[in-house]
Amino acid sequence: MKTIKISLAIAVIGLITFFVINSLTTLVEPPPPPPVENQFTKIIDEEINALKTLKVISFKDLKASYENVKFDIDDYYGENRLGKNQSQNNQSKERLSKNLYSIYVVKFINLTNSVFRKSDWNPQDITFIRNESKTLKNSKFLQKGNGVDIQIIQIQNVLSKYDEINKFISSCKEFSYSNNELNSAFPITTIKQKISRAVTYKNNKLENSFVNNCTVLHNQLNETTKFLFNAHVRFLNGKIDRYKGWYSKKDPSGEYTFNSAGAYADEFYKKMKNEINGLDNDIYHVSNLDNEYEKLIAKLNKENSNAMTFFSNN
User: Fold this and answer.
1) Percent of the chain with pLDDT over 70
2) Fewer CB near the last or first residue (10 Å), C or N of the chain?
3) How far apart are CA 263 and CA 259, in angstroms?
4) 3-state secondary structure string, 3-25?
């Protein structure tokens, strides 16, 4: 009986030892195969090293250099020249493509940051940076969360803030208020909010240290008040134009809408003059305020003069 117990114990220990050794064995990954070297892989390696030391001053030159190396990789791969068999050919293509990506993406980031540090941002450069950063971010060779990934995200954050401010500026340039009914009023509250937002961007250095370098954005933000003032002037002009000659209109029964110049003045002229006076509301600090005000008043007075002439003749 004692012999049987000893035998069972030895068997159990043996099984445990087997499974432990087997589990340890499966945890150890085999070393990667050494890189394939032949005359074609050496050519590509030399081209990649040349790109690494190349001093580039434009995205056009950088991209062209990258594409030349990539073309050679794809060409040699397609002709099965990167290894003795398909497995080696695939292995070499993967290694060379990854190395090319690693060199190129660093060059791209450095050149992008040099563009962002300038005061004059070339729109073509910005378009290239936008498209290329997306491509590089989606590459299978990018390790999520590493330094390169973080820097690409930072680049995209710069572009996001740049786009946000440009969109805001466009909203000011293109602002219009089309409701020119008699009792409608220009939305001064909205105008004040936009002017306040422009001031906030400026005070906060455009909310991004790189974007803050862009002179065009600063200049356009400085013009925000002018854009909105011009929209207000257009609204008032449009309103006067809409009701031009209103004093001579007739209602459905055939009677004149107004029976006297005084009635017309109470209903239109005085209301419109008050609206024009609203231009001088201490929110528009523009050099042409007085000039535009005088032109609007002159236009309105001409309408009122025409109305007085009309009623005096009828």
Assistant:
1) 90
2) N
3) 7
4) HHHHHHHHHHHHHHHHHHHHHHH
Question: How many Å apart are CA 89 and CA 96, to the nearest integer?
Answer: 11
DSSP 184: -
How many CB atoms sit inside 10 A of residue 255's CB?
9
| Residues whose CB is less than 8 angstroms from the CB of residue 3 and which lie 6 or more positions away in sequence, other chains included | none
- Tell me which residue of 125, 50, 41 sits closest to 83, measured CA to CA: 41
Residue with tokens 């563009």: 115
pLDDT tens for 139-179 read: 999 999 999 999 999 999 999 999 999 999 999 999 999 99
Question: If residue 175 lies in a helix (H) or strand (E), which one and from where to where?
Answer: none
Length of the chain: 314
* Pairwise CA distance, residues 88 & 93, whole Å: 9
- Number of other CB atoms surrounding residue 194 within 10 Å: 18
For residue 107, the surrounding DSSP H or E stretch is: helix 86-116
Q: Which residues pair with 250 in a beta bridge?
A: 256
Helix or strand or coil: residue 256? Answer: strand
